[in-house]
């Protein structure tokens, strides 16, 4: 069969929109959560065992739920927020809930890689905990953070494809509706190829940006 390129381009745009908006909202959730997971842990700037235990537990719960199950489980919340449980906008809700805790862990790991001597030096200069986080901890971890966000973005591309299983729109929905259910191998081939190119492009871009930041 001939490929309908208008459909392909529309699905590609839907995928980009889903990944883009989900990434923004997930960072808004994941960045402060990741920072809190670091600074509230024992022996750190704002040590608080109760807060750390609760946050870590919540993150672990969301990370343990497979995305396809999470999509179904949060349908009532999705309907409450966007008014529907299908389509591109509806897919963003579970994608954010899925990727936010994941990004938090990536940020936590990146910040924990920073040499403790950097914080010691900042404290010796009289920097407050907030100043240490903003001016020392995050800048030192920026290269690693970039790689972490690249991984998270690629994960969102995969999640957007899975969202097609419940009518989430995008390339995944197109591949399932036309490529699989209608046995259209041309559509399946094109959508898979585009997804592979997207992932390769994102990984290459993330590597380049991370290397540039590291050299500064």
Automatic annotation (TrEMBL):
Residues 12-204 form the ABC transmembrane type-1 domain. Keywords: Cell membrane, Membrane, Transmembrane, Transmembrane helix, Transport. It is a multi-pass membrane protein. Pfam families: BPD_transp_1. SUPFAM superfamilies: MetI-like. Its main location: membrane. It is found in: Cell membrane. The chain crosses the membrane at residues 12-38, 50-75, 81-104, 145-166, 186-209. Gene3D superfamilies: MetI-like (1.10.3720.10). The keyword Iron-sulfur does not apply. PROSITE patterns: ABC_TM1 (PS50928). Belongs to the binding-protein-dependent transport system permease family. This is D-methionine transport system permease protein. It comes from Virgibacillus natechei.
């Amino acid at each position: 069969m001939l490929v309908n390129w208008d459909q392909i381009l529309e699905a590609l745009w839907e995928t980009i929109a889903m990944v883009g908006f989900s990434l923004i909202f997930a960072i808004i959730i994941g960045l402060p959560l990741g920072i809190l997971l670091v600074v509230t842990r024992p022996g750190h700037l704002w040590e608080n065992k109760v807060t750390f235990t609760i946050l870590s537990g919540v993150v672990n719960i969301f990370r343990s739920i497979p995305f396809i199950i999470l999509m179904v489980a949060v349908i009532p919340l999705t309907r409450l927020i966007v008014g529907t449980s299908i389509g591109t906008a509806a897919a963003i809700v579970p994608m954010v809930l899925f990727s936010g805790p994941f990004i938090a862990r990536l940020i936590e790991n990146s910040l924990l890689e920073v040499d403790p001597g950097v914080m010691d030096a900042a404290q010796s200069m009289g920097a407050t905990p907030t100043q240490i986080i903003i001016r020392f901890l995050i800048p030192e971890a920026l290269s690693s953070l970039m790689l972490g966000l690249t991984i998270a973005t690629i994960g969102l591309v995969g999640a957007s494809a899975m969202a097609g299983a419940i009518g989430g729109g995008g390339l995944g929905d197109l591949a399932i509706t036309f490529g699989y259910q209608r046995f259209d191998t041309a559509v399946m081939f094109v959508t898979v190829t585009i997804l592979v190119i997207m992932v390769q492009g994102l990984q290459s871009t993330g590597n380049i940006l991370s290397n540039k930041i590291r050299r500064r």
